[in-house]
């Protein structure tokens, strides 16, 4: 009986930058002290001074709340719309101290530029930054206080450049992460496809050979036919377990198991097998790759070679598979051989497929 209840999905901790990145923006609110002091000391009626102070405090609150909400949206379009609405509120709040303290309210401008850089789409953010820089230049110039407030131009320029660089790098980083994710998915699909092909190709080839043999023996030797059918049942169960392990990423080929499987496959096909007595001569670092090579090579010999003999030589970091069959000729390379080339290349090895040494058959050499 199987349990149909869904297993709980693993949860991933939130990105610390997404959860607490707003703190980096909030730190700079300390510089709002200057327009606050100017508002409190402004030469105007007390209600106006109080209104200016309240507007600056509200500005700080909206600014922080806006930053905290930026990461709660699912799409860039939603972020952009929220950014426009929030900027409209911030600009409206900034107008009040501007009426009370004049050009000194330019101290709010860097915050507007920073928020725009992180909330609007890149083109709109850069346009807003340039508009902020022009405001920092034109307003003091128009009021005749450019000499006293030139530093606002420098501050706004630095904020625009620094936040713009962060935004561009973050955008490129997001593109890179998405590309890496897609490549990981493709790589995993290729791994599963390659492993499933190797597992099924070998198992089904042996099952086919044994089924044909059992069919011939049903009338001639029923007892032997029963043995072959039992082997087929065992092979199919093993293949099913291997497929499950492959999909789960747990399938690992063992060199000794593959030598034994090669003996069964070649013997069942009536091919004389010359196999190594000690498969563990292979360096442990190379056994998994060479085990996969042996499996696919023997499968190809059984399926395509029409050989009468197959010899396998294992050394510390290499394998050679020779057969006396019909050779590869001009046949295109199939999925199995492409998969082997990929495995060997990933392990930094050399893959050679050529005609046998006597001009007949096929020789496959892999050296790691």
UniProtKB/TrEMBL annotation:
State the InterPro entries in the record: HATPase_C_sf, Sensor_HK_TwoCompSys, Sig_transdc_His_kin_sub3_dim/P
Q: Which GO terms describe its molecular function?
A: phosphorelay sensor kinase activity; protein dimerization activity
Q: Does the keyword Transferase apply?
A: yes
**Superkingdom per UniProt:** Bacteria
Q: Which CDD domains match?
A: HATPase_UhpB-NarQ-NarX-like
Record lineage: Bacteria, Bacillati, Actinomycetota, Actinomycetes, Propionibacteriales
Q: Which UniProt keywords apply?
A: Kinase, Membrane, Transferase, Transmembrane, Transmembrane helix, Two-component regulatory system
Entry keyword annotation includes Iron: no
What are the Signal transduction histidine kinase subgroup 3 dimerisation and phosphoacceptor domain coordinates in residue numbering? 188-251
What's the name of the protein?
Histidine kinase
Annotated TM spans: 20-37, 49-67, 87-112, 124-143, 149-169
Please give the SUPFAM superfamilies that the UniProt record associates with this protein: ATPase domain of HSP90 chaperone/DNA topoisomerase II/histidine kinase
Q: Can you list the GO cellular component terms from the UniProt entry? A: membrane
């Amino acid at each position: 009986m199987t349990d149909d209840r869904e297993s709980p999905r693993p949860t991933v901790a939130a990105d610390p930058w997404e959860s607490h990145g707003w703190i980096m923006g909030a730190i700079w609110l300390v510089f709002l002290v200057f327009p606050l002091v100017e508002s409190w000391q402004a030469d105007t009626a007390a209600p106006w001074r109080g209104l200016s102070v309240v507007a600056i405090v509200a500005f700080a609150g909206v600014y922080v709340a806006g930053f905290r909400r930026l990461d709660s949206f699912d799409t860039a379009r939603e972020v952009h719309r929220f950014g426009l609405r929030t900027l409209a509120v911030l600009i409206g709040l900034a107008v009040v101290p501007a009426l009370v303290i004049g050009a000194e309210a330019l101290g709010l401008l860097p915050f507007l530029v920073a928020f725009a850089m992180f909330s609007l789409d890149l083109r709109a953010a850069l346009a807003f930054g340039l508009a902020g820089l022009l405001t920092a230049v034109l307003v003091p110039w128009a009021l005749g206080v450019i000499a006293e407030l030139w530093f606002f131009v420098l501050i706004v320029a630095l904020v625009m450049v620094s936040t713009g660089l962060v935004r561009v790098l973050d955008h490129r980083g997001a593109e890179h992460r998405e590309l890496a994710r897609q490549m990981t998915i493709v790589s995993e699909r290729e791994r599963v496809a390659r492993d499933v092909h190797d597992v099924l190709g070998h198992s089904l080839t042996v099952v086919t050979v044994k089924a044909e043999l059992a069919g011939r023996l049903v009338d001639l030797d029923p007892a032997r036919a029963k043995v072959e059918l039992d082997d087929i049942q065992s092979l199919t169960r093993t293949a099913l377990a291997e497929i499950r392990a492959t999909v789960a990423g747990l399938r690992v080929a063992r060199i000794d198991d593959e030598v034994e499987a090669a003996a069964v496959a070649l013997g069942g096909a009536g091919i004389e097998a010359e196999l190594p007595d000690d498969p563990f001569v292979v360096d442990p670092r190379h056994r998994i790759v060479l085990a996969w090579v042996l499996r696919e090579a023997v499968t190809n010999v059984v399926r395509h070679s029409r050989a009468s003999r197959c010899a396998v030589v294992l050394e510390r970091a290499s394998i050679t598979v020779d057969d006396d069959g019909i050779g590869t000729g001009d046949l295109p390379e199939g999925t199995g051989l492409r998969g082997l080339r990929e495995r060997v290349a990933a392990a930094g090895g050399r893959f050679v497929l050529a005609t046998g040494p006597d001009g007949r058959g096929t020789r496959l050499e892999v050296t790691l």
